[in-house]
């Protein structure tokens, strides 16, 4: 690893830690509110809870697409253009993940299984196409 990578690594771990704590607190909130049966949950909180799953899926999609739109140096070329044929495994993985999410969502009404299926489809298709 170069010296620049070592300098960024602690900041990256700090960011991962903050995101992990935030995720944990978001998942803990319904349990804390359910522990008080006499207290009804406000409508805004119920609407927020229903929107978290789709928002998480969209965040995963944006995070996987974002690197392709970064400048790759030289005459405004994007990373997709610079990658050329090497972008195929990444884009095919995204397409496989989206298809898996839609199919599993129709069978399983929750959001957890479609998310896991999408992550699995992305990983498997990316690994298979990257090996070619």
Automatic annotation (TrEMBL):
The chain crosses the membrane at residues 12-33, 45-66, 86-104, 111-131. Pfam families: AzlD. This is Branched-chain amino acid transport protein (AzlD). Keywords: Membrane, Transmembrane, Transmembrane helix. The keyword Transmembrane applies.
């Amino acid at each position: 690893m170069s010296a620049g990578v070592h300098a960024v690594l602690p900041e990256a771990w700090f960011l991962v830690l903050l995101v992990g704590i935030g995720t944990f607190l978001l998942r803990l909130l319904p349990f804390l509110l359910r522990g008080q049966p006499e207290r009804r949950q406000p409508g805004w909180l119920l609407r927020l809870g229903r929107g978290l799953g789709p928002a998480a899926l969209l965040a995963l999609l944006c995070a996987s697409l974002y690197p392709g739109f970064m400048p790759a140096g030289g005459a405004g070329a994007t990373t997709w253009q610079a990658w050329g044929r090497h972008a195929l495994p990444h884009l095919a993985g995204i397409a496989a993940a989206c298809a898996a999410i839609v199919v599993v969502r129709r069978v399983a009404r929750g959001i957890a299984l479609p998310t896991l299926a999408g992550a699995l489809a992305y990983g498997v298709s990316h690994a298979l196409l990257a090996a070619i």
